[in-house]
Design brief:
Blueprint lengths: L14 H14 L4 H15 L5 E7 L5 H6 L5 E7 L12 E2 L13 E7 L8 H11 E13 L4 H15 L12 H10 L3 E14 L2 H10 L16 H15 L6 E13 L18 H5 L17
Parallel strand pairs: 1-2, 1-4, 2-3, 4-5
Antiparallel strand pairs: 5-7, 6-7
Helix pairs in contact: 5-8
Length: 308
């Protein structure tokens, strides 16, 4: 009996379109404040790890922001950048054109894999995480930040309400973003040891909706959903979305709030030296004793709460 073929991951993003938009954004020289913030924060988090990493993979991060943030720390050795637009990197950078969903590296190649604001664009995130774990040497570290959670929730709600009201229907406009709990599960399934996830919420305020749109274009982060509508939004729909946004998400001074959830993820390639969970039944103290509580059998009604 033949083995069943692996399931093809859903095509969520038009990655060719994404590359073109990122290329255009880089050519226009627009600033990417969110990437710069993420790169600086990643470098700071890495400093909390008291280790030097010899060979590092910077996976998918646009431009040189992350490389620049890591430079001079004394913590990193050789940094290899792998991303679709490697041609944009400066002369002298060790950069190669590679898709985050198809890593061209041998197993156990890197001491550290980092990524900033790239992995939320992949179609097969579970498969990408598995490849990253395999590319790490035993006890190697994966540290990344991606857009997640409620990123752009205000824009999503305003566009949906305006489009339903003006055009009588909805089309995909804002990409789906992974939640922190789901990301923790994906790290475990990919085989990472000691996985950690957390969210850093950044609220940016804009004078008008046009300012937010300009920033998204400068990031190369406008709509790249595969199922997007082929026609652009009508001017009347955009105007109505701006009104709804102002009604629902403006501060007292009239400025508009935009949420960016930075989802932080880290995990280690397994190694025998790492801390291991205790075996069931090996504890030397009862939980009830540690909590100062009275132990009861299952189904027995609880008494009054303990006062301290």
């Amino acid at each position: 009996m033949s083995n069943p073929r692996p399931e093809t991951p859903p095509r969520i993003f038009d990655r060719a379109l994404l590359r073109r938009r990122r290329w255009r954004a880089a050519a226009q020289g627009g600033g990417n404040f969110l990437l710069e913030r993420a790169a600086e924060d990643l470098a700071e988090r890495l400093r909390a790890v008291t280790r030097r990493f010899g060979l590092i993979l910077d996976l998918g991060t646009p431009g040189s922001a992350l490389r620049d943030a890591l430079a001079g720390s004394g913590q990193v050795g050789t940094v290899i950048t792998a991303e679709p637009l490697a041609a944009l990197h400066r002369n002298g950078d060790l950069a190669l054109a590679a898709d985050e969903e198809a890593l061209p590296f041998r197993d156990e190649s890197f001491d550290l894999v980092v990524s900033a604001l790239a992995l939320h664009w992949v179609n097969d995130l579970p498969g990408t995480l598995l490849q990253i774990r395999r590319a790490l040497k035993p006890d190697g570290l994966f540290l990344a930040v991606m857009a997640g959670g409620d990123t752009l929730t205000e824009l999503r709600q305003s566009l949906a309400a305006a489009e339903a009201e003006i055009e009588g229907g909805l089309s995909p406009r804002i990409a789906p973003f992974v939640e922190v709990r789901a990301m923790g599960t994906l790290l475990q399934r990919a085989g990472f040891a000691l996985p950690v996830t957390d969210v850093d919420r950044l609220t940016v305020r804009y004078r008008d909706l046009g300012g937010l749109f300009r920033d998204l274009r400068a990031m190369g982060a406008t709509n790249a959903l595969a199922e997007r509508h082929g026609k652009p939004l009508r001017r009347t729909t955009i105007a109505r979305a701006a009104e709804i946004y102002a009604e629902r998400f403006a501060d007292a001074d009239g400025r508009l709030r935009a949420t960016f959830d930075l989802l932080w993820v880290s995990g280690w390639a397994p190694h025998e030296s790492q801390q291991q969970p205790l075996k069931p039944g090996s504890a030397k103290m009862r939980l009830a004793d540690a909590l100062g509580a009275e132990e009861r059998s299952a189904g027995e009604p609880a008494g009054r709460p303990i006062k301290r």
